[in-house]
Sequence to fold (268 residues):
Amino acid sequence: MKDLDRLAAPGTPERELLDRLPSSSLPRHVAIIMDGNGRWARQRGLPRVEGHRAGIRAVRDTVEAAARLEVEALTLYAFSTENWKRPRWEVRTLMALLKEYLAKELRTMVDNNIRFRPIGRISELEPEIQDGLARAVEATDANTGLTFQIALNYSGRTELVDLVRTAVSHARTGQLTAEGVDDGWVGAHLATAGVSDPDLLIRTSGELRVSNFLLWQIAYAELYFTPVLWPDFTTRDLLLAVAEFARRERRYGGVVEGGHDDPEEAAE
Fold:
């Protein structure tokens, strides 16, 4: 791995943790449900907007840490289709912060070889947001490092609805038969096509649910829940999640020698 000194200074607890991580056991793709901005602000007697603003700092730090850790892909759940139910002023604030982030961080993504990719129903966002996203995609398209996916106006259910609509449309025009639909076809027509499924799903703030995020893709992901609120999420917290992932035994429905091979045995 590269940039270890920039990721964690020698002699720090974070560097000790990093040095113990086996490179062969690192996740290729990390997905994060960023939760807790509102609670973070409320605990400090601040407006919710300040929680979202603090959350942007955590996004910046996490993207840079993932790139230096040489994770292949990072997907952040930024705005769900259900988030339109929030107060209008809050939605406007979130979109303004997104535009601000793209304007400030595009040069950093280019310089750090990060490929930017938004997923979700992007065409339903306001034109100015769409333009900013398109510029970031174009400017980073040739980059070969971390693929940074940001889920905007996204939900796992709407993604699957869109996929079914595509299947029906292709079937009507003779491009698709029932036999042609398999895991490979589905994967190639999801918003995340071309990117490996998440190995590790992290959710902050202590909530124990997946909130309609990457429902197909996280079938075999390891789930990691932390009580840390998103604005307080640091490189150390990311490393703790990755360290926990490295300790787990992944079987994909099979049997690992010396491990448990049935639910009853695993419960003993």
About this structure: The two ends are 39 Å apart (CA to CA). The beta strands are 29-33, 73-80, 115-119, 147-154, 200-203, 222-225.
